């Protein structure tokens, strides 16, 4: 089984495997499930004392779930805590508390250089790990679709709105599912069997996007999924699934790789349709 990449995945795995754990490890599991903020903030020695186990038991617990050490697993709790803090100002404050860092914020040029470096790595990973066959299949699905519907909420909204904009410039009938006015149901009722839906969501996954993707899968609608993990709740609904690992600097994730993939799909569709027209 793949090592969890988000706290929710880890929590699900702990619950699923709880019965097979030793008594000591069950103590750790119970503490971790009930005290996620303490795990994010406290040291290994403090956590061990509060869970009433030796520190070595924490290490064994982390190893049992595929981590190289307890501090590696601890990063999932820190990331989750930061993601639940929606204000960027509060995230910066929280980072200082987590790191115990009294230093003032980095200079803008330092932040720019760090994001540039991280995004460069994310772009290389996107290019090397994206299947050419999946790209071809996705473009063919989009080309044959009568209508293209795009859904992406929260931080995925910028990617979904760009795709809708780009497809309309290709003279494709493209529609953004945004639930404006609470009309998700009405927007979904327009989707037909010869349409294609692109659903975009990253951890923490938008509940509405997952529910929409699930409902469309039951109808047999073709779906192209853009997400951040093979075990994302959306991945199982996909006909084509793209896993994008975005750059991350401290608590702040970029969208550069996702937008690069979106632009690739749009431009590839333009070339595909032009070549198809020339062959006719």
TrEMBL record:
Task: Indicate the segments forming the SIS domain, all copies.
Answer: 138-275
The family database entries (Pfam families) matched by this protein are listed as: HTH_6, SIS
GO BP term, example: carbohydrate derivative metabolic process
Q: Which key words tag this protein in UniProt?
A: DNA-binding, Transcription, Transcription regulation
- Select a single GO molecular function from the record's annotations and give it: carbohydrate derivative binding
Family matches, as CDD domains: SIS_RpiR (cd05013)
- What region holds the HTH rpiR-type domain? 8-84
Name under which the protein is recorded: Putative HTH-type transcriptional regulator YbbH
Please spell out the taxonomic lineage of the organism that makes this protein.
Bacteria, Pseudomonadati, Pseudomonadota, Gammaproteobacteria, Vibrionales
Q: Which gene encodes it?
A: ybbH_1
């Amino acid at each position: 089984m793949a090592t969890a990449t988000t706290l929710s995945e880890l929590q699900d795995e702990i619950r699923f495997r709880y019965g097979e754990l030793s008594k000591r490890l069950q103590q750790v599991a119970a503490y971790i499930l009930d005290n996620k903020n303490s795990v994010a903030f406290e040291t290994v020695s403090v956590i061990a004392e509060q869970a009433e186990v030796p520190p070595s038991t924490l290490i064994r617990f982390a190893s049992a779930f595929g981590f190289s050490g307890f501090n590696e697993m601890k990063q999932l709790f820190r990331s989750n805590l930061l993601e639940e803090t929606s204000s960027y100002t509060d995230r910066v404050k929280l980072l200082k508390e987590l790191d115990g860092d009294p230093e003032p914020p980095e200079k803008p040029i330092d932040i720019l250089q760090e994001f540039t470096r991280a995004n460069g790595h994310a772009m290389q990973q996107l290019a090397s790990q994206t299947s050419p066959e999946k790209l071809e299949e996705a473009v063919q699905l989009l080309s044959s679709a009568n209508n293209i519907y795009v859904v992406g909420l929260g931080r995925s909204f910028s990617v979904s709105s760009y795709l809708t904009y780009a497809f309309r410039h290709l003279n494709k009938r493209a529609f953004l599912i945004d639930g404006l006015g609470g009309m998700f149901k009405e927007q979904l009722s327009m989707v037909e069997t010869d349409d294609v839906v692109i659903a975009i969501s990253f951890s923490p996954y938008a509940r509405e996007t997952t529910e929409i993707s699930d409902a469309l899968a039951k109808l047999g609608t073709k779906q192209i999924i853009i997400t951040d993990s093979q075990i994302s709740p959306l991945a199982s609904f996909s006909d084509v699934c793209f896993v994008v690992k975005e750059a991350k600097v401290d608590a702040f994730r970029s969208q550069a790789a996702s937008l690069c993939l979106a632009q690739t799909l749009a431009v590839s569709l333009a070339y595909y349709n032009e070549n198809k027209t020339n062959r006719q």
